[in-house]
Input
Amino acid sequence: MPETIIEIEGLYKVFGKKPKSIMPLIKEGQGKQQILEETGHTVGLKDINLNIRRGETFVIMGLSGSGKSTLIRHFNRLIDPTAGKIKVEGVDIMKLSPKKLQEFRRHKMSMVFQRFALMPHWTLIKNVAYGLTVQGIPQKQCLEKAKAWLKTVGLAGYEEQFPSQLSGGQQQRVGLARALCTDAEILLMDEAFSALDPLIRSEMQDQLIGLQAKLQKTIIFITHDLDEALRLGDRIAILKDGELVQVGEPVDILLKPANAYVRAFVKDVNRARALTVETVMKPPACRITAETIGEALEQMKKHSDNYAYYVTDEGYQGVVLQETLEKAAATDKDHKLASKHIEDIPAISPGSILEAVIPETLYTDYALPVVDDKGDLCGELSRISLAEVLGEMNVDQSASLPS
Amino acid sequence: MFDKFPTMARADLLHIRKTLDLGFRDFSRAYGDIIESLFDPLLAFLIWFERLLLHSPWWLVLMVLTGLVYWGSRSWKLSLGVLICFLAIGYFGMWDNTMRTLSIITVSTMVSIVIGIPIGIVMARSDHARSLITPLLDIMQTMPAFVYLIPVVMLLGIGKVPGVIAVVVYAIPPVIRLTNLGIRLVDREILEAADAYGANSWQRLSGVQLPLALPTIMAGVNQTIMMALSMVVIASMIGVKGLGQPVLKSITNQYFTLGLFNGLAIVVLAILFDRVSQAYAKRTQKYMGEVSNA
Output
């Protein structure tokens, strides 16, 4: 398991005149509404505990007012918590002096904003270079690096334009380039794509996925869009009214929702697009490794199915049918298994999304073999398991489904 | 007993007035010279600047002025208009007074900006400072100028420096108020961006807050100039030479035409300052408008 890079422990945030005075009330278990009515204080975040691992994309999801934007601003202390610990690489950032905090923000984290937050009075290249300029790095060096990053996000040639001359999508690319330009290890993205229209948003998601594959940053991504969360997140935390409801991998969120709130959330998700074969497949029922027909037949008879996957040292070869074997055995039991006995059934990869394999599943009589990129058989995907996941099922069943 | 408003005894009131008046008189006798000497550099600059405008050949001053207008506005129409107005002013014999007024207004505006913008910044940074300064500004703007002219004249006598002080007191509030407002209006997310990338407070102020507040600050400067010009006549009562004195003379002697001409000359100066500062502000904000042109 990769090491933890950010650790949040017992984080509370109360907004109001005397936030500290409210802490005992919260600890007593008074509700948010009650506290607001009696004291005029708003509980923004309540007992948040999170571990974020190096190199993962961690999505924090919630509807507006859930406290997600407040939470992300705690990571670089744009907002200070009322109580709790925030550790980054083992350092408690609550204890940093203003000077140290500045250094920390300059080198460790960079941020992308919902409404881009570019400096309207500067050209794009100056905007991208901002993080470096602030560090006091010579102008020429800053601009060179900024130029390279502008190119990476696909805006070469736009260096001398002003932000107001660009479309929303382009502006956010600049925002992303600015964040990447400082080489900070942690990237905070506050609803970075929410202000963009759907097509551009999905384009930007692709770009982020592509960049992340190369850069391996730790990304903390805020969104209110579950599809976006499922698409980008290695892990997802769901936030409701300032409390964490569930933290887990996308599959867990989809298939094992922690409560009715999450369940309602994931109800409308297109599972065929959100889930991969890997998450639905089952261990292969029957695999045959024998060399001769007789041995193969024996191996098959131990299982109830009338077909099996033939696997050699070189990996998955194809499907053999009981019927074929029996016919062949009638003539020569010790004959070696040959390609004429093997049905050529295409294999699917564990990483494909379900939607892509639906036709193949339907047109094949057997459960489809799932073969990883090394050629090894790692599971099978039957029509039934596909139907179970995609079909209309009541929630209790879905909760008990194996992942 | 409710027929008459209960008032302080006359003797007590007299006593208060005497104490304050005498106290201030003693203070100004004791420290007047020292305080006056503090303003010597300002006086020297005022005299130098006025001489520069008065003793340079008129055509050179005219060229420089027109050039400045063009530099600020990049509009030849405006520059030509200013040129014609100044030729008219000279032709009607008001050149020297106009130069004197131009000089004192320029210096007053410069003083207002130099003092006003930092105060505005302080106000924007602290709500506490704002709640202290705002009522002061209200007083400065509503207190009749004659009232604060009294102590100024008692301390510094009559002349250029008290004139500048009177003008600055009256004209500085807009630049302070609008600097404060401009900085407070800067988009919060942009400031967050500056913070998130680790800008220190100077980088934040000089790189983000001031440039983005500039349109508002320039509107304040513009207002300050206009208010300074409206003080010209009152300043002339304490011995500031310029277009105000003939106006004052025409009020007391009922010279309608003299008053009108000099008044018009003040208007010309106002238009000059206003158009140039606005055009300059707009030109520096070009990045804002690019989208509407595209």
About this structure: Residues 81 and 98 of chain A are 16 Å apart (CA to CA). Confidence is low (pLDDT under 50) at residues 393-403 of chain A.
